[in-house]
Amino acid sequence: MNGDISTLVAARPGRVRDGLQALLAAIPQIEMIGQADDGASALKSVVEHRPALVLLDTNLPGNEAWVVLRQIKAQWPQARCLIMSDSGQQRRAAKAAGADGMLLKGFLAAELVATIKELKLLPQ
Question: CA–CA separation, 86 vs 77, rounded Å?
């Protein structure tokens, strides 16, 4: 893969987002292009920056993650969307909404890297 992987994180401010950004910062190929607190700002950032990777927390305000995921995949199918879920039920909903990958919260750094590799964004 040539160049950096432009990445957007859509999650409420707090430990989940801070921890995720720290993990992503440790991956040299990742270029953080922004963060979004809610669905509207996530969609605005996707339109503006066209990231290769969007990480969506299922706990966005108003259960917006599913709406955002469907809109991203409908308008920019080349963007890879990785959902961070709290449960198996959310994982099933994410798959039905078009998620390219899913991680159960509490995942290890190695699982994040392996999932990004499965999305063919990092070399195997």
Answer: 24
